TrEMBL record:
Protein name: DnaC
One of the protein's GO biological processes: DNA replication
Stored InterPro entries: AAA+_ATPase, IstB_ATP-bd, P-loop_NTPase
One MF term in the entry's GO annotations: ATP binding
Domain AAA+ ATPase as annotated: residue spans: 118-256
Coiled coil stretches, renumbered: none
Domain of life assignment: Bacteria
A Pfam family this chain is assigned to: IstB_IS21
Length: 270
């Protein structure tokens, strides 16, 4: 009530008021008093006006939306998207061949599935320079903008550095926090899998990450073939990568066209 009084004072309205009606909040349906009051200042001084008391739910909804926005921003800040890819969207992806058109179609289906709160998993694989990372960033942007989903994009070759940075005293993030973000994201994107210099430590970390994502949405991009990844990681990890996936979720990009060369801003893969 204090807030209402302040609000009314600012607007130059006489605080003596008469209850004239009851209306209902459009958001939550709560009954809200409607008062008739006389203006004591401003151009309409002396005239009568009706005021509906504000509903608290609009404040809490705004707070929820704001908290949601901050959360998505936090995931974006933690993502390791290089500068060349920051402008990438599905709209500005230029598909040059059938496999790239096919890949964009899959991207749209993938986004819609997650938008409907169904877990979706997909691999983009094929030679470097065909725009796999561009598509992955585009997917994360569309999910953020259209469905307000949180996406975590991890440049896998930088994974070691990302985790090592949590070991320093200055880090505000612990390794466990990072794993929580990895587990909680609506979508985890592992970009350039297989290019990280695979060691027993990195394998163990990958296994932990994939375990944290069981039955959750996952997007992988890789320059390696699935059988090469099988050799790199071994059956235990490959099994986790391919969990809940069908052949249709393995999307191959191919062609001689170099996406990076053509656009020249692309630096997504080595
Ligand atoms: Zn309300």
């Amino acid at each position: 009530m204090r807030r209402l009084a302040n609000f009314l004072n600012v607007d130059g309205i006489d605080l003596k008021r008469t209850l004239v009606n009851v209306s209902h909040c459009r958001n939550c349906g709560r009954a809200l008093n409607v008062y008739k009051m006389r203006m004591i200042g401003g151009p309409r001084k002396g005239s009568w006006t009706t005021i509906t008391e504000p509903c608290d739910c609009s404040f809490s909804q705004q707070a929820l939306q704001e908290a949601d926005r901050i959360k998505r921003e936090r995931f974006y800040e933690l993502s390791t998207i290089n500068d060349a890819l920051k402008q990438a969207t599905l709209k500005n992806f230029s598909a040059q061949n059938a496999s790239q058109i096919h890949a964009v179609e899959h991207a749209v289906e993938f986004v819609e599935k997650i938008g409907e709160n169904k877990p979706a998993r997909m691999f983009y694989y094929g030679k470097p320079g065909l725009g796999k990372s561009h598509l992955a960033v585009g997917i994360s942007k569309l999910l953020d903008q259209k469905y307000h989903k949180t996406c975590l994009f991890i440049d896998v070759p930088a994974l070691k550095l990302i985790f090592k940075s949590t070991w320093t005293k200055e880090s505000t993030l612990t390794e466990r926090d990072l794993m929580t973000f990895i587990a909680d994201a609506d979508l985890l994107i592992l970009d350039d899998v297989g290019a990280e210099g695979i060691t027993p430590w990195s394998k163990e970390l990958m296994f932990a990450i994939l375990n944290a994502r069981l039955s959750k949405s996952l997007l992988v991009t890789t320059n390696r073939s699935i059988s090469e990844l099988d050799l790199d990681y071994g059956p235990k990890i490959i099994d986790r990568f391919l969990e809940n996936m069908s052949k249709a979720d393995l999307v191959h990009l191919d062609g001689d066209y170099s996406y990076r060369l053509a656009r020249f801003i692309e630096d997504d893969e080595q």
